[in-house]
Automatic annotation (TrEMBL):
<protein>
    <submittedName>
        <fullName>Uncharacterized protein</fullName>
    </submittedName>
</protein>
Length: 280
């Protein structure tokens, strides 16, 4: 099983949904999309073994993959939505008690010498956040930025609470299988979710009941692949998801499409799809 399938504990969530051991999930013989993606579900230069199935959250990545001549796709729905069904009460508060903004800084990745650090004007972004948000703001940093003291301290010294949900894992090591549980619990207590780039967290926040916003310096990512099309492509294809005030009905409709809500499957179908049924 490719180690990406373990990211954020996603294979663990699907195993739990299927009624199996979620501490030691069975192998997914293929590639599971691990985050919202503007392409065919993966990095443009991701290597696949021949004949592998590609399990996407939603139909748009499958269609984009087909235009590139790629096959063996199956749409399964985002593991975060399965988790939301499994944990209907986790972090839930009455609607009128939701407060504040959970603000996600665009993050780097575990790229080592190949890149992965973000660079941008944090002072300017902090100023814009303070000018825009009317309730208390909690800044979420991925651990790659949380451990960069100059980044974390910039937001702490600005008066924000700064949190980190943990590590997604890498090469089967360090996976926090409670990562998405912690995010779901947090989302359900906030009124707004915001970020400086349209990202997975925005869609998860909307799915959990938050009002979204996407604004500010999108930052630059060292080693960012131009084949994704950059911010211009996102603005062209998802304009309804950008801005400081976003139409909630439109955002929810787009979120349902991008997370594949209508493709969620019952446990028995998932066991059959992944070949997880016991063999006599």
């Amino acid at each position: 099983m490719h180690h990406h399938n373990h990211y954020y504990g996603q294979s663990h969530i699907l195993a739990r949904w299927a009624g199996l051991d979620d501490q030691h999930p069975p192998r997914i013989r293929g590639y599971l999309q691990h985050g919202w993606n503007v392409g065919c579900g993966w990095n443009p230069v991701h290597e696949f073994f021949d004949g592998a199935w590609r399990y996407t959250w939603s139909d748009p990545p499958r269609r984009r993959g087909h235009t590139l001549g790629r096959r063996n796709y199956h749409v399964v729905g985002a593991p975060f939505l399965y988790l939301s069904e499994l944990e209907p009460d986790l972090g839930t508060v009455p609607e009128q008690e939701r407060e504040g903004t959970l603000w996600f800084l665009f993050h780097g990745w575990e790229g080592g010498g190949k890149g992965g650090k973000i660079e941008g004007d944090h002072a300017r972004l902090i100023s814009e956040i303070k000018e825009t948000e009317t309730e208390p703001v909690t800044i979420s940093l991925y651990y790659t930025e949380f451990e960069r003291l100059e980044v974390r301290r910039a937001y702490e010294q600005a008066g924000f609470q700064v949190i980190c949900f943990g590590k997604r894992g890498w090469n089967y090591e360090g996976t926090d299988r409670r990562f998405l549980y912690k995010q779901l619990k947090a989302f359900r207590g906030f009124k707004r979710v915001a970020a400086n780039r349209l990202s997975t967290a925005i869609f998860f926040g909307v799915a959990a009941g938050c009002v979204p916003a996407v604004y500010g310096d999108p930052m630059e990512l060292e080693g960012d692949n131009p084949l994704f099309g950059g911010q211009a492509r996102i603005a062209r294809l998802w304009p309804e998801m950008l801005g400081k005030e976003i139409d909630l009905a439109a955002a929810r409709a787009t979120t349902d499409v991008e997370l594949g809500r209508h493709h969620l499957m019952p446990p028995a179908e998932m066991r059959m799809l992944f070949d997880w049924n016991p063999r006599d």
